[in-house]
Amino acid sequence: MTGKITFWLICTLCLMPAMLLSAEQKEDLDYAQVVKVRATQQENGLWRFDVTLRHNDEGWDHYADAWLVVRPSDGKVLGERVLAHPHDHEQPFTRSLSGIAIPQVLTVVTVRAKCNVHGFGGREVSVDLGRNKGDRYEVVPLKN
Known about the structure:
Blueprint: H1 2-25, E1 33-41, E2 47-54, E3 64-70, E4 77-82, E5 93-100, E6 108-115, E7 125-128, E8 133-134, E9 137-140
Parallel strand pairs: 1-9
Antiparallel strand pairs: 1-2, 2-5, 3-4, 3-6, 6-7, 8-9
């Protein structure tokens, strides 16, 4: 019994740095961080997303260059907002994208961002389209 506990403890301690690195990476401003999301349902059934990002932009060599709305189950891209230039002196910053088609059966989407050096890896936000508010997001449903 003692051998199993010792083995478990050694395995846990060996994996701990990897788990911590992942958590730290999600807050590291070298990775584009999704700070806040506002999803608004439009009259035509499509959605508008206003997404606030934070990133340690350093000019054209290293900047947040896109955010995406994806289906959580498989990562299928539902909408992509390309960011055309660095935002060195505008942090955090918000950009919008309208006309995003989200199937009615899909109730949760994920918003993720990337930079032109590290790609994805920062904080993502899961948005439950059936709830008015959640952790780091707000949903504005279509008014009848």
